[in-house]
Design a protein that fits this description.
Number of helices: 1
Helix content: under 10%
Largest sheet: 12 strands, antiparallel
Shape: elongated
Strand content: over 45%
Order of helices and strands: EEHEEEEEEEEEEEEEEEEEEEE
Number of strands: 22
Radius of gyration: 26 Å
């Protein structure tokens, strides 16, 4: 408000009306607060050539409270550029998804985070039904998706304050191949070499990250078994041990083993328990039937 002492007249600026409308949920508004508390020295430095501000001592901050999206910056440092673009490394939490990476950029106008180099994505999922105590149970997915590039769409750009409920957001877009590895020791004391044994995900999209349930996790890709089987396509889903894997049913078909040295039919399963099969193996001069091959 501008007030003229001589004429005793007040002039309300547009910001006042914007504030009132925002307060009553009639207009979108900014809801991002960044706190800088470095242990010593300056809070920030400004590069006069690029007009980029490096901010130190940055506490974890929220990009959207209603969509449950926030940042834990690595080294408590971010870089703020024009148009409120923010560069950072570290952890990006989006509902039931956690992303860890480098070279992340938050674009305020478009209201998304560019994911240039994500080391890993970890997920949790919600039970489809409530317990007898009327609460949902949340469980972690016991596999990581690695080497992701893409976007995290936080909310509709016209809904930065989250005054409208759009359940579809946040949305994770993976624009290129990513990977799930099985190089942790499993119950058979087996470690698969990540250079030759892995699942290669195709580009995928996962929405409604605040309400992920088991059936929402479904990623198409290619299984590479290190020469045990020929490469084949499947869908990664959450298995009974809460890891990412699949159940591949061959029906009446057979599949080669070890580059043609044998054949196998029936079912192939993959999870953190290992690569297993149930069916018939015809290998060299041996014919073996079993309900569980490992």
């Amino acid at each position: 408000v501008n007030y003229n002492i001589k004429t005793k007249e007040a002039n309300a600026k547009q910001k006042l009306f914007d504030y009132i409308e925002s307060n009553y949920g009639k207009k979108d508004y900014d809801a991002i607060s960044i706190i800088s508390e470095p242990p010593k020295g300056n809070n920030a430095t400004l590069d006069l050539k690029t007009m980029e501000m490096t901010v130190l001592g940055v506490k974890p901050f929220v990009l959207s409270e209603n969509r449950r999206v926030g940042v834990v910056p690595e080294g408590n440092q971010i870089i703020i550029k024009k148009d409120l673009e923010i560069d950072f490394n570290g952890k990006l939490q989006a509902g039931l998804a956690k992303l860890y990476g480098k070279d992340l950029t938050f674009f305020y106008d478009s209201f998304y985070v560019s994911l240039k180099d994500i080391d890993s994505l970890t997920l949790s999922y919600k039970s489809e039904e409530k317990t007898k105590d009327s609460v949902y149970v949340y469980s972690p997915v016991m596999s990581k998706v690695e080497e992701i590039t893409g976007l995290l769409r936080i909310d509709d750009p016209s809904n930065k304050s989250g005054i409208k409920t759009i359940p579809l957001y946040p949305i994770l877009e993976s624009h290129d191949t990513s990977y799930v590895y099985y190089d942790s020791r499993n119950e058979q004391d087996t470690v698969y070499n990540r250079n030759s044994f892995y699942f290669k995900n195709y580009a995928f999209e996962m929405d409604s990250l605040n309400t992920i349930i088991k059936k929402n996790v479904d990623i198409r890709g290619m299984f590479i078994s290190g020469g045990i089987f020929p490469d084949f396509e499947e869908n990664l889903t959450v298995q009974n041990d809460s890891s990412l894997g699949f159940i591949h049913n061959l029906s009446d078909k057979t599949i080669q083993l070890y580059e043609g040295k044998g054949t196998y039919d029936n079912t192939i399963t993959l999870s953190n328990k290992g690569l297993k099969g149930s069916g018939k193996v015809d290998y060299l001069t041996a014919l073996v039937f079993s309900e569980e091959f490992i």
